[in-house]
TrEMBL record:
<dbReference type="InterPro" id="IPR013083">
    <property type="entry name" value="Znf_RING/FYVE/PHD"/>
</dbReference>
<dbReference type="InterPro" id="IPR009060">
    <property type="entry name" value="UBA-like_sf"/>
</dbReference>
<keyword id="KW-0788">Thiol protease</keyword>
<dbReference type="InterPro" id="IPR038765">
    <property type="entry name" value="Papain-like_cys_pep_sf"/>
</dbReference>
<dbReference type="GO" id="GO:0008270">
    <property type="term" value="F:zinc ion binding"/>
</dbReference>
<feature type="binding site">
    <location>
        <position position="184"/>
    </location>
    <ligand>
        <name>Zn(2+)</name>
    </ligand>
</feature>
<dbReference type="InterPro" id="IPR041432">
    <property type="entry name" value="UBP13_Znf-UBP_var"/>
</dbReference>
<feature type="binding site">
    <location>
        <position position="204"/>
    </location>
    <ligand>
        <name>Zn(2+)</name>
    </ligand>
</feature>
<dbReference type="InterPro" id="IPR015940">
    <property type="entry name" value="UBA"/>
</dbReference>
<protein>
    <recommendedName>
        <fullName>Ubiquitin carboxyl-terminal hydrolase</fullName>
        <ecNumber>3.4.19.12</ecNumber>
    </recommendedName>
</protein>
<feature type="domain" description="UBA">
    <location>
        <begin position="677"/>
        <end position="717"/>
    </location>
</feature>
<feature type="active site" description="Nucleophile">
    <location>
        <position position="321"/>
    </location>
</feature>
<dbReference type="InterPro" id="IPR018200">
    <property type="entry name" value="USP_CS"/>
</dbReference>
<dbReference type="Pfam" id="PF00443">
    <property type="entry name" value="UCH"/>
</dbReference>
<dbReference type="InterPro" id="IPR001607">
    <property type="entry name" value="Znf_UBP"/>
</dbReference>
<feature type="active site" description="Proton acceptor">
    <location>
        <position position="766"/>
    </location>
</feature>
<dbReference type="Pfam" id="PF17807">
    <property type="entry name" value="zf-UBP_var"/>
</dbReference>
Amino acid sequence: MLHPMDLLRSNLSRVRIPEPTNRIYKQECCLSFDTPKSEGGLFIDMTTFLAFGKDCVVWNYEKTGNPVYLHIKQTKRLVPEDRPSKKPTLLAIGVDGGFDNNEIEYEETHSIVILPDYATLPFPSVELPEKVRLAVDAILRAEGAERKEQIAAWIADKKEISAFAMNLQQIDNGVIVPPSGWKCAKCDKTENLWLNLTDGLILCGRRNWDGTGGNNHAVEYYKETNYPLAIKLGTITADLEGADVFSYPEDESVIDPLLAQHLAFFGIDFSSLQKTEMTTAERELDQNTNYDWNRIQESGQEMEPICGPGYTGLVNLGNSCYLAATMQVVFSTHSFYARYYKNQNLKVAFGLAPADPTVDLNMQLTKLGHGLLSGKYSVPSQEGNDAATPTATAEGIPPRMFKAVIAASHPEFSTMRQQDALEFFLHFLDQVERANAGKPEVDPARCFKFGVEDRIQCSSGKVAYNRRLDYILSLNIPLHAASNKDELEAFQKLKAEKISEGKEVSSDEIVRPRVPLRACLASFSSPEEIHDFYSTALKAKTTAVKTTGLTSFPDYLVLHMRKFVMEEGWVPKKLDVYVDVPDIIDISHMRSKGFQPGEEILPEGVPGDEAESSIPLANEDIVAQLVSMGFSHLHCQKAAINTSNAGVEEAMNWLLSHMDDADIDTPTPMSQGGETVVDQSKLEMLISFGFQEEVARKALKASGGDIEKATDWIFNNPDASALSHMDATTLNATSHPADVGLPDGGGRYKLMGIVSHIGTSTQCGHYVAHIFKDRRWVIFNDDKVGASINPPKDMGYLYFFERLNS
């Protein structure tokens, strides 16, 4: 057998000296949550600079043949129990002269290991080849890839004050910027618009690499004029710090300390917004936030820590509680448990992964699943020499690599800012569905998916049916349905008296409305009037009635409580309300009946007749208000149409839930002005692909004649072919092409998970999960996992229900 040094020399060609641009992993295994502190330490592949724990390193050798590894092991440094405490001289923790934060100290050792026999050579050693010494030194000196990503995310949020802000010259040319209806001064772009702070000209932003975005008019204007600063329209809210100001000469996002003054110059006045910031209601909400915090986190209660399989906490990476709370509930479902833990081990996932497993969603979800569910990283920690006394659960696992993968395609989730748990949940499911495209039988996201059907009846008596798929049931909270109206009335009188006396209401005197969940579900199903509905039967606008039902019931039903509403003046407000949610609900009555005998379908529009159209029109008032909040014109049109012009709040909630839809950027069909002319050659090309002529024609109209977008439209609207020649005899309650193959069953569900939010908006505060496991409620508060004493069932933001099998 060769000596370890001879083995190393024979494999020198497999050792690389890292370049400054190489990503070097040395804090955590790419396939598990093992670290240098783990029992087996960490092995860094000296060819790829990927890190592997003791159990996984052999898989990497088998897959790549790379034999040389740098082994890093950290062991606890023994500290004498009688070591005297140093007197602090600085008001700081964990720094020289500051308070001792009692952090455990570790000793780090290094060695060179050659697989498959784990032949070991000590490092440092002058006997090692120079190439190996240089490579190891470079690896140890380098900033780890994990740390680099974290720093990049923090820096991305840190803006500097612009050198051009304090002395910005503004030209008084009479420009007053309206709150909505903006358009680029040089083209027809109505999104990605920037207001030049020198002369008030509105121009479109830069063109993206894929042709989307703007037409570069704003940056070209800077080159012509040298006017330095512009603000992105739609990012202006009462919180001016969140506004997106860009400096062209500095080529980065900046802070403008005089932004309010610079905006007021063009008639954008924030004094009215500032007044609403501390209304009485908001002051009450501030007082209640402390109560929320204690109630949702169950503060002040002696909580029994829990550890073991399924009870592993997630370390907060910096405002990542929205991710932690959501993923804890997701991995408590049978579908995700089976897909990424029970039916797929780490070795199989690694075998399927590309050369860099850190960028593979399947691998990182399997890693996260095994980390959370195996129990390997959730063992009682021991204190002192008394091994019989477990003091607390383990530290939890940091979901760094998973966050980097899931956020790669989303500019917001890749930052260190707080995010909306609902938006993250929908983005996550979209990514999982894409990763499992073409394999519906293994797609765990389908367990949340269901069909929705809108039935619209116009005053002619004829009906239209619109169908769509969704992952969440988003519910309004009808405050008028509160069950404690007498207490509320008494509280309002008390509050009026206190205000007249110049006193404030104390937090223990505040009474919140209590709304039963059944009232929220009834609000979803109840008929609503649609004004200005264009009836193809009457060839005129009329009032129609819309009712909504579900065409399938998912394995897991997610209810989103619309606690966040937008008040006049772009001010987001959180409803101060309790929702009484029972453990068992029955939504059987919400199943759509589908087309009924005797009903008559509204006719489609006759081509060429300008007064007639089968395509619903977006209410321009709703569209204008949404555009003024910063959404794109096209997205706002779609939101208004898909909510049947029910109102701004309904449209905004639809928009927030569908931002990641594959067809969100597909142009809407021509909604007025007669038949869209279709290019015959493009039509024939789509027919040659095997699509029906009628479907191909619809797709070309919907995509503005773009072949590629038309093809996408067809794939994203699988029911188009069935609906294109569906008549009164084929439309029935059991024929729903869009939801074929989706899980379906009875309508009785049991509450199994709650994601609660503490704070005044989804962009700040804290998220906590409560999950019903092993016949008891458990709180997951980042890395802390414990038995829940009083789960806040009436304070949830997202409720997860599991279907009960009859």
